[in-house]
Amino acid sequence: MITLPKGTKDVLPENSYKWQFVERVARETAKTFNAKEIRTPTFEHTEVFSRGVGETTDIVNKEMYTFLDKGGRSITLKPEGTAGVVRSFVESGLYAGALPLKTYYLTPCFRYERPQAGRLREFHQFGVEFFGADDAGFDAEVILLAKTFLDNLGVKNITLYINSIGCKECRKAYHQALKEYLQANYDDLCDLCKDRFDKNPMRILDCKNENCKKITENAPSILDYLCSDCKAHFEKVKSLLNAAGVEYKIDAKIVRGLDYYVRTVFEFVSENIGAQGTVLGGGRYDGLVEQFGGGKIPGIGFAAGIERLLLLLESAESIEKQDVLTLFVAPMGDEARAKAFEIVSAIRKKGIIADTDYMNRGIKAQFKYADKLGAKYVAVIGSDELSRGIVKLKNMTSGEEKEVCADELSEHLK
Ligand code: ATP
Ligand code: MG
Questions:
Q1: pLDDT over threshold 80, residue 257
Q2: Pocket lining for ligand 1, CB < 6 angstroms
């Protein structure tokens, strides 16, 4: 038997309705915020991510699916959504159009990680990227979109953590203080953090290594080093969230995994799904568009992991059940079979879910199959029914049976 590659999963027919539910809620929520869908390729030139995501990130350092194509180009399967959207925003000239521009996407992502619950090598994200405003209202709106999405899904017991990681200016002083603090324990840092120490010391706060976590426990807080503009921006974000009734906690340790973030960063974390509790994360990336050659256009966005959301929703009743089969037509004999085909074709045109037998099963076996499918009604046609232009319609819930005119069948299905 040929099996799945490690870290990938099938979505089987009996579970796809859960995915469709999350995707539908994502689209509908984004729509009410006036965001429009953007679709970018599954693979990009590697520099989109190495430059866009950042050289000191876990993603670029060790998680990317990178290969040379037959033309000798370095290609990478997208590990996240933002860099490709920004590349497209610049390349297609959207940055020169009407701003702000609000976009959203649903996409597979690929990261070479150790597979475990809530951590896969191919996973899926719902994300939004908003471009054009540096106003704190934009930050609050993106956070509110994320919150509305989770509320609409029916997700419970989830905490919003926010932080400001300042701008390049205030970070200079902070990096200095952080490095002074870390210096004493430099030798005990993991190799990756040793590398980060000079390149981007703040990323050390995000390290998953237990030793590094311990070392950073009492590290200085970025919030004490914000410049007055960044401070005012953060205060405004908080007061807008307060006004909108959005509850949050401040966590100065949140730096997010990507290099491009400035000012506001945030995460929604659940305590219900174990170690991989962060279901949604985002932040502001004011320098990224410029880095791709699109001028000084600010941006902010988030991405939610759909597999992790589904872990949360597993026990929730909020997921609408799969579309149910309304009518199964059970023919007896070849002539009746032709009629059954005609009936299901006509019924489907009315948007009703209908099916019939293609296995030449006897009537008992057909009822058994219809029952397995959860059919609401079964319509039986034998030679007698055929000659009279009727079907015998059975309500599978109540057991009630009646004869109805074959042409008026749809009126009897509720
Ligand atoms: P983590 O700290 O768990 O590695 P991250 O910071 O790498 O997460 P982001 O790059 O911010 O994650 O991606 C946004 C969201 O995508 C995460 O909050 C999570 O829900 C989901 N996600 C990230 N990596 C994976 C993965 N390997 N498998 C499944 N979902 C993932
Ligand atoms: Mg990660």
A1: no
A2: 80, 111, 113, 118-120, 123, 125, 257, 276, 278-281, 303-305, 307-308
